[in-house]
User: What shape does this take?
Amino acid sequence: MSEDCVTLSRSTKETKITVSLDRNGCGKHRIETGIGFFDHMLTAFSVHSGIDMDISVSGDIDVDCHHTIEDTGIVLGKAFAQMLGDKSGIVRYGSALIPMDEALAQVAVDVSGRPFLVFDAAFSHDMIGAMDTQMVEEFFRAFAFNAGITLHARLISGSNDHHKAEALFKALAHAVEEAIRPKDGNAMLSTKGSFD
Assistant: This one.
C-alpha cells in the first residue's frame, strides 16, 4: 500500500530535517535548507516531478554544506519510499533527457527497491554559490539508496556548472514523475511478483 501524503522527520547532532511529500500535488513547494542553490535544485525537483514538497532543514552549514545536503537526501529518499509503499500500481521505470541551455543531462530510474547509483558527471568548479559541486553526486546517492531506487545519471554535455546541475535535477524529476505514474491495475510490475 502507498501513502499519498507523508511527513518524516530526522534529528542528529548535525541536522534537524522535516520532509512532507504529496504525490497527488502539482509541484507546490516550501523549501528552506539554508543553502540557496540547493533550495533552487529542490524547487526544480518539486516543480518538475509534480510532487508537493515541504522541506525544512536546520544544519551545521557553519562547518560546510555536506551534512545538510546528504542528510536531506536521506530523509527525502526515506519519505519517497514510504510514500510509494510496496510500489504496486506504478509504471516503475522512468527516464528523461533534459537540456538546460548548453547542458544536456540524462537520468533513468527503476523504482524497484534495489538501490544503486551510477553517476557520470563532471563539474568545472568547486562551488555553485554555497553548494559544493561534489554534493550533487552525494545527494543523488543518498536519495537513491534511501528511496530504494536504481538511478543512472549522466551529463552528456555542458560548460556552465549551474546549468549542468540544474539539468541533472530536472532530469531526475521528470524520470521520477514518469516512474511513479499509475498504471492499469494494481499488480506489481515484476516477474517475481515482489520487489524484495
Remarks:
- The first strand starts at residue 5 and ends at 11.
- The helical segments are 36-49, 66-84, 134-147, 161-179.
- The beta strands are 5-11, 15-22, 29-32, 52-59, 93-100, 103-110, 116-120, 127-128, 131-132, 150-157.
